């Protein structure tokens, strides 16, 4: 088994940083930069590159098995990586009922990229990390020696991979605050560990519940042995929870696209940008602050 040649995929690293002039922040003395991780690779977009690259290397040619919902960006990125690197991939999808329906565009893309889709019911999906359940799933998909990547891709390899995002921003001494939207929190956990001591991270969770701080602390403990970096979360910008895109958010994103010519991914990036506009208006950033917002994804299709 040999490691796949990730360099042959020519990732654009470090990802570019762009300054944009937005009066809603500018009038409060806040300078806004966009850290364009969405430009790293056309298929392994944003944090997907940073999380998957170390996992693909660790898979060393073995089948990669991972998990996700019917619209998972992570499943699509894993499937694309399989196609590009010649790796066998299996996507374990939440929702047995989906198996008798036509594939939605996201799962159709996974299948077209050669991913084997394995649908499981929601109760089994919840138990997927229990050793017996996982072993059963791996047996069923005939991949008992697979490299298993958790839902959202946030294992310790991924968290350590995301530290490079922080290191790239550490090289930018003008950046005071790095802001990003969080799902599992794996990207934030790694990013925070790579920044300079005088830089801080602000995360905006897209899921409701207020449980994420503890999970990020646990991810940092597993990956680095303890809490790292200066980070905090603002739980006010989930807009009702995962995948909820109310009209107000959609209108905000459309307007941002018109102003700045950036395609705004709705489930994460739009919620972050909206949060930054609110925070600037609240005076949360002292005048003269430079905020770098991480563009972690791109709309699909
Ligand atoms: C576009 C986008 N942004 C942000 C995230 C959140 O990343 P994390 O789960 O590491 O918090 C995801 C999910 O992986 C995503 O698809």
Report on the structure:
By secondary structure, the chain is an alpha/beta fold. It folds into two domains: 6-45 and 155-294, Rossmann fold, CATH 3.40.50; 63-145, Rossmann fold (3-Layer(aba) Sandwich), CATH 3.40.50. Helices cover 39% and strands 16% of the residues. It is built from eleven helices and ten strands. α7 packs across α9 (212-224) and α10 (247-260) crosses α11 (269-281). 44% of the residues are buried. Bound molecules: pyridoxal-5'-phosphate (PLP). It comes from Streptomyces hokutonensis. Keywords: Pyridoxal phosphate. Belongs to the ACC deaminase/D-cysteine desulfhydrase family. InterPro entries: ACCD_DCysDesulf (IPR027278), TrpB-like_PALP (IPR001926), TrpB-like_PALP_sf (IPR036052).
Instruction: Bin the helical content.
Output: 25-40%
| Average pLDDT taken over every residue | 97
**What name does CATH use for the topology of the largest domain?**
Rossmann fold
Report the C-alpha radius of gyration, rounded.
19 Å
Number of domains: 2
Q: Oligomeric form of this entry? A: single chain
**CATH architecture identity of the largest domain:** 3-Layer(aba) Sandwich
Keywords: Pyridoxal phosphate
Organism: Streptomyces hokutonensis
Family: Belongs to the ACC deaminase/D-cysteine desulfhydrase family.
InterPro entries: ACCD_DCysDesulf (IPR027278), TrpB-like_PALP (IPR001926), TrpB-like_PALP_sf (IPR036052)
């Amino acid at each position: 088994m040999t490691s796949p040649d990730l360099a042959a995929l020519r990732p654009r690293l470090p990802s570019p940083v762009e300054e944009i002039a937005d009066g809603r922040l500018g009038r409060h003395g806040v300078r806004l930069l966009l850290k364009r991780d969405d430009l790293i690779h056309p298929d392994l977009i944003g944090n997907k590159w940073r999380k998957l690259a170390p996992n693909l290397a660790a898979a060393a040619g073995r089948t990669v098995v991972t998990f996700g919902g019917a619209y998972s960006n992570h499943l699509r990125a894993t499937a694309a990586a399989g196609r590009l690197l010649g790796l066998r991939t299996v996507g374990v999808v939440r929702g047995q009922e989906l198996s008798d329906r036509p594939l939605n565009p996201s799962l159709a893309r996974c299948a077209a990229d050669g991913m084997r889709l394995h649908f499981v019911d929601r109760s089994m999906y919840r138990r997927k990390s229990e050793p017996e359940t996982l072993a059963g799933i791996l047996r069923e998909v005939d991949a008992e020696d697979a490299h298993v990547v958790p839902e959202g891709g946030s294992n310790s390899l991924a968290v350590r991979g995301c530290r490079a995002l922080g290191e790239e921003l550490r090289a930018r001494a003008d950046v005071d605050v790095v802001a990003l939207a969080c799902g599992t929190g794996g990207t934030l956990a790694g990013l925070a560990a790579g920044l300079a001591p005088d830089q801080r991270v602000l995360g905006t969770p897209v899921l409701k519940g207020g449980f994420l701080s503890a999970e990020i602390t646990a991810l940092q403990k597993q990956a680095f042995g303890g809490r790292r970096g200066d980070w905090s979360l603002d739980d006010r910008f989930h807009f009702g929870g995962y995948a909820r895109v109310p009209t107000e958010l959609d209108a905000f994103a459309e307007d941002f696209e018109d102003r700045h010519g950036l395609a705004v991914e709705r489930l994460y990036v739009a919620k972050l940008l909206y949060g930054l506009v609110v925070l600037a208006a609240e005076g949360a950033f002292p005048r003269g602050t430079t905020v770098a917002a991480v563009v972690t994804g791109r709309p699909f299709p």
